[in-house]
Amino acid sequence: MEIRVLPLSEEQKKTKYTDESQLGFGKLFTDRMLVAEWRAGQGWIDARIEPYAPFLLDPACMVFHYAQEIFEGLKAYCWEDGSIALFRPEMNARRFNRSATRMCMPEVPEELFLDGIDRLVSLEREWIPSSPGTSLYIRPTMIAVEPMLGVKPSDHFYFYVILSPVGAYYAAGFKPVNILVEDKYVRAVPGGTGEVKTGANYAASLKAGLEAKTKGYDQVLWLDGVERRFIEEVGAMNMFFAYGDKIITAPLGGTILPGITRQSVLLLALELGYMMEERQIDVDELMADIRTGKVTEAFGSGTAAVITPVGKLCYKDECIQIGEGGVGTITQKLYDTLTGIQTGKLTDSFGWVRKVA
Ligand code: PLP
Ligand code: COI
After folding, report:
1. Distance from residue 83's CA to the centre of ligand 1 (Å)
2. Which CATH architecture has domain 4-166?
3. Out of 9, 58, 212, 319, which residue is the most buried by the measure of CB atoms under 10 Å away?
4. Longest Cα–Cα distance in the chain
């Protein structure tokens, strides 16, 4: 599919950031975006890269009322030799289309998704930060834009991609976070939308997140929505617990997001000589194992969160430090290996990196 590139005038160019250490996460956006439209009976039309600008949308658009929306998150890294690399973008393309199917939205041709990102990132290369821990966060999104108040799938969609130069997701950087196991609210139930990346999942999680923040925690860890007994995932990351050389994580049972970082960690950890197990994790057992020191480390994984160490886990009225409460050896090793591959400092023996032309 042809992607037109519209001109960007000098006035449309934004002032670039000057201090990479102040980027934060998702606050700044680059000069251009990719947009394509889908209409019933026509399919995908009019793919173009155009100056970044607000959309003019009818207040009746279905996305505003019934949240028919999906998104993805991936990153581009600037390597020391000046080249640019994406990390496993094909996985994001596939997950995006699984989300689309679940939300009754049209699939985006993989070629449009991947080539569109390639060309957009290439045009915006001067926006990619290069200091350690920074990257260009890529946010592919699809929204329902038919103006209509009946509850049914929209017949008109926008697919768009915006880019944001970012630093660490958590303000403290690569430091242990404190996590509250959520026992009041639930995120997902079997048969629901927990395993896809749709905005409504995140809207529904805000209340729990806010209550946890006011109590001084960084994030909540969700339990399964039926028994409220098994560990699922954190707001923006999958969770891992190390028992010495063995690392466990919750299985993909339809209610947690199949994280691309999660899947990469499973493979990397095996290569590094650790034992990996995907199994249901009972929260009471987990707390007991942290208390007795059997759990030696805990960390989360995600595109935005990368590998984030967890210092303390709190459940009901008990808050327990994990291991020494700092960054554990395995956590550090996985962080170094993963970011080493992403930034070209380590060999990519898995073929995960895709260079941008
Ligand atoms: N779980 C949730 C709910 C997320 O939003 C994310 C972030 O995308 C993840 C897990 C981690 O997924 P990934 O590693 O693909 O970024
Ligand atoms: C990502 O890690 O890409 C995410 O989508 C997390 C986001 C909710 C900040």
Report:
1. 26
2. 2-Layer Sandwich (3.30)
3. 212
4. 63
338 C-alpha to center of ligand 2: Å?
17
Q: How far is CA 110 from CA 89, 164, 261, in A?
A: 10, 22, 20
With contact defined as beta carbons under 8 Å apart, do 165 and 136 qualify? yes
Q: What is the pLDDT of residue 320?
A: 97
Reference 265, options 344, 195, 355, 333; nearest CA is: 333
Q: For 268-304, how does the pLDDT look when each residue is reduced to its tens digit (9 = 90+)?
A: 999 999 999 999 999 999 999 999 999 999 999 999 9
pTM: 0.97
Which ligand 2 atom sits nearest the alpha carbon of residue 197?
Answer: 5
Q: Which are the contacts of 55, defined by CB distance < 8 A and separation ≥ 6?
A: 158
pLDDT in tens, 25-71: 999 999 999 999 999 999 999 999 999 999 999 999 999 999 999 99
Q: What is the residue extent of each domain of the chain?
A: 4-166, 177-342
When pLDDT is cut at 50, 70 and 90, the band that residue 255 belongs to is: very high
- What residue ranges line ligand 1, CB within 6 angstroms? 73, 233, 236-238, 257, 259-262, 301-303
CATH topology of domain 177-342: D-amino Acid Aminotransferase; Chain A, domain 2 (3.20.10)
- The arithmetic mean of pLDDT across residues 91-103, rounded, is 98
